[in-house]
Amino acid sequence: MKHIDAPERLIVLGRVFSCAVLIGLVVFPGGVEDHALGALIGVSIYLAFTFVWIAWVRFRPGRDIGRMLVWTVIIDSVALGLLSVFTSAQGDPFFAWYVAEAVFFALSQKRRQAWVFGGLLAGSHAIGQTLRGYITSPGEYTFLFMGTVTLVAISYLVSIVVGDQEQRQREIEEKRAEVEALNARLERSVGELQAVTEITELIHSTLDVEAVGPMLLDILEKVIDIPTASLYVIEKEKQETLFSTSSVRPATGRERSGYDIANPSSTPVATGVFSCLDLVEHDKTSVIFCAEEAALAALTQEDQVVLQAIASELVVAVENSRLYRLTKRLSITDELTDLYNYRFLQQRLDDEIHRAERYDKRLSFLMLDIDDFKRVNDVYGHRVGDQVLAEVAAVLKSAVREVDVVARYGGEEFSVVLPETDAPGAFIAAEKLREAIALHRFKDADGEAVVRVTISIGLASFPAHATDKEALLRAADGAVYHAKRTGKDRVRAPRLRVRRPVSDESTEGVAE
Fold this sequence. Notes:
- By secondary structure, the protein is α+β, with helices and mostly antiparallel strands.
- It folds into 3 domains: about 5-170, no CATH class; about 210-325, GAF domain (Beta-Lactamase); about 340-505, Alpha-Beta Plaits (2-Layer Sandwich), CATH 3.30.70.
- The protein is built from 15 helices and 11 strands.
- The chain has helices spanning about 5-25, 35-60, 65-85, 95-110, 110-130, 140-205, 215-225, 255, 295, 300-330, 340-360, 375-380, 380-400, 425-440, 470-485; strands spanning about 230-235, 240-245, 275-280, 285-290, 365-370, 405-410, 415-420, 440-445, 450, 455-460, 490.
- The strands form 3 sheets. It has a 5-stranded mixed β-sheet, with helices on both faces. It has a 4-stranded antiparallel β-sheet with strand order 2-1-4-3. Strands 8-9 form a two-stranded antiparallel sheet.
- Strand 8 and strand 9 (about 450) form a beta hairpin.
């Protein structure tokens, strides 16, 4: 009986004890009148149904006992009625038994059924006492009526008390569950607030927002159960991704097909792997959150509020980062030609010379000057002259390597830093630049490609021509001056000084 429920076990044990008492009434003299057949039948009925109970709980444990209790109260009423009729004891010896059964059934049934069960037991008691023949006077019938009413009242009152206790218990459990749910929501809200605060501090702690992207998702995943996700900030006008971070590998084309990046306001379409939704929609930017379709469907309203709060902060941080990068670029870029400016050139040249010294590398520097640029301004106007400067810059950038640095030195002068390039290599690069400018046709004010210009280039190499930055700049400047003086549209290197004995210091050798 190890799988039998506690109420069922209690019922069986109670009935077994009751059976033992009834058997004692039959076995010992004076229990029932001459062992009357009616009393034996009553005892037999009670015993038989007790065995039915034992078999029922043994082979059908855990079933609904409501129907079984209905049969029990009917059969027990019959058995107790027979025992009441044929008992030889004085008074009403089975009344306590009736009360016990009434209390038991009231404890196990609802209020309406308790009325019925109490009524059956009260009827059995009244019939049994009447058939015994001991009640003859109106007073005795009055006491019998009071006992019968008492059985019904006991059943009803016990059911009321038990029902009220059960109702209070349910209310307590509901309140407890409500409090636990509120505590869970409070803890989640606190966690979400902490996550939003932590993410806000994180994304505003640096102007390089891309670097904190993975950490942002790590914090987010602590409060929102989405193990894999991607976050994008998109500029709607140019359809350019300004910011992106992901906690998984980049999605394939099939996975991204469910969202139209060209139309960020479109409704997300499930792809079977990832789905996307818009978190924030601004005039110029939108924030898109992508995750597994099931995970997105499971997002609560609070989760979406957290995501929207983070997205709003992210838009501001991305815009600040863009402005910072733009400001930084403008601080080192010439506005007219979009080349690096003189300030950046000086810093980069310091870095490259230091690197060349440290690793024993070669470095070359080109100084370029547009020939007769004043004539271009005088003939075609300063507007065309500015356009020519911008086009010269574009030609120079297209004719050098990616590692080379092209800068505007000032006015119509340009410069090129050639890392890891010796003098012969620099001469080849300079000739390439000179020819590219000489062959190019620049547009005049009418848009006609009729303007021609040439450039003179001075070449200086480290450490062949100079051993520091200032000497390198002077050598290149002297070389470009020499190129202009000897005919323009050409490349020249500085004169190399050949050391002579101290006694003959006035003698110099020149090489170009």
